[in-house]
Design brief:
With 376 residues, this protein is an alpha/beta fold. It has helices spanning 2-11, 19-29, 32-36, 40-43, 51-63, 66-76, 90-93, 110-113, 130-145, 158-168, 190-199, 216-227, 242-251, 269-276, 285-293, 317-325, 333-340, 344-356, and strands spanning 80-81, 102-106, 119-124, 149-152, 173-176, 201-204, 230-235, 255-258, 280-281, 331-332, 360-363, 367-370. The strands form 2 sheets. It has a 9-stranded mixed beta sheet with strand order 1-2-6-5-4-3-7-8-9, sandwiched between helices. Strands 10-12-11 form a 3-stranded antiparallel beta sheet.
Length: 376
């Protein structure tokens, strides 16, 4: 797992090599470490890797050292998953285009990541009608009260209402960004962002410092669809980005539901088009919950215990870097050092500090793993 984590990050830096091709490369060579060391001829046997891309891969191998780049990257982005990590969302990996790196901030529930707790997306226009707003609040609260995770894009309008209503009902919500985790967009959602990091999870495939870019948001929508078992489009005009999310959902074999309204309402026309194309119609909350409840359950690993991991926002940068290298699974001291890219003395001292804070536990054999949270 350790080497693969390094190589997922390294491969993600190669221009022109998108998530679809990268997953294909991984499956062809079994591990990305094998692929990194493959001959040009072997690389050329992967469907979709033309001569130009193979040349770019060879150039990257000459200029980028995976371990060194990983250490530098980790200093700025300590919390992220790759498909080599056990907490990488299971449903997302099963899509054709899983992000090679997924940054996160907030409270991690492994059962959610494994798909044992179903996640449902609520998406829609930034300018909802009162009808759309009212139903979003009603549905989000209902989902939260019945144990579903509510996923949305933290945008204005329907997204914000979905997150807020879920939190108000005591539920768990995930926000998927089209920016780095250090940039809150739109800015008026700063308080909502902070509350989600305290009670839910913020996700992005973009590293810190990534600003809002028009092309990032359609790509973000595929992650929303990939994370969820069902997608609810509450209100959407004919050119809404929510329809992109619905299209990805159909491609990923997810259930799509939508809220009807009059054809005279512009915000409903995209929804009516979805109904025309086969989406399920939302008529009643209880009926919707019943339909969502019959989604086939995913098998959770035996003996898996619920564990919420604190984001540790107040740690010093060096301590946070070491904390980010420790996972739910026990890791040897050498593995933690390798993931950090720091000297052994520094790592040892920071691990001791994390133990005192109640964030990390030392196990027999000089192994370490995360635990619940600060002890009072």
């Amino acid at each position: 797992m350790e080497h693969d984590r390094l190589y997922w990050l390294a491969w993600s830096q190669i221009p022109g090599l998108g998530p679809v091709l990268l997953k294909r490369v991984c499956q062809h060579f079994e591990t990305l470490e094998n692929a990194w060391k493959a001959t040009p001829r072997a690389l050329g046997t992967v469907h979709g890797l033309g001569e130009k891309l193979v040349t770019q891969i060879l150039q990257a191998r000459q200029t980028l050292d995976p371990a060194e780049f990983y250490a530098r990257h980790l200093a700025q982005n300590p919390l992220f998953w790759t498909p080599a990590d056990p907490d990488y969302p299971r449903l997302l990996w099963e899509t054709p285009s899983p992000p090679p790196v997924l940054y996160y901030q907030g409270l991690v529930n492994p059962l959610e990541n494994q798909g044992a707790v179903p996640a449902i997306a609520l998406v829609g226009t930034r300018f909802p009608t009162e009808h759309g707003r009212r139903w979003t609040i009603k549905i989000s609260r209902g989902l939260a009260q019945h144990g579903f995770v509510v996923v949305s894009g933290l945008a204005a309008g329907i997204d914000g209402e979905a997150h807020r209503s879920c939190l108000d009902a005591g539920g768990r919500t995930w926000g998927v960004l089209g920016t780095g985790l250090d940039l809150i967009y739109p800015p008026q959602h700063r308080d909502l962002f902070q509350e989600i990091t305290q009670k839910g999870l913020i996700l992005s495939e973009y590293p810190r410092g990534t600003k809002p870019d028009r092309g990032n948001f359609p790509a973000r929508n595929r992650i929303i669809a990939g994370l969820c078992r069902g997608i609810l489009v509450l209100e959407a005009p004919t050119k809404s980005g929510s329809l992109i999310t619905a299209r990805y959902a159909t491609e990923f074999n997810r259930d799509v539901y939508t809220l009807p309204n009059s054809p005279e309402v512009e915000e409903a026309r995209g929804c009516l088009r979805l109904i025309h194309n086969g989406a399920e119609v939302i008529v009643d909350l209880d009926e919707l919950l019943s339909n969502l409840g019959v989604l086939p359950p995913l098998d959770a690993p035996q003996g898996q215990q619920l564990s919420l991991l604190p984001p540790a926002p107040d740690l010093a940068p060096l301590t946070l870097q070491v904390y980010g290298a420790v996972s739910l699974e026990p890791l040897s001291f050498d593995s933690v050092v390798q993931r950090c890219g720091l000297d052994t003395g520094t790592v040892s001292g920071e691990l001791l500090q994390l133990e005192l804070l109640g964030l990390v536990a030392q196990l027999p054999g000089m192994r370490y793993q995360r635990v619940g949270g600060p002890q009072g």
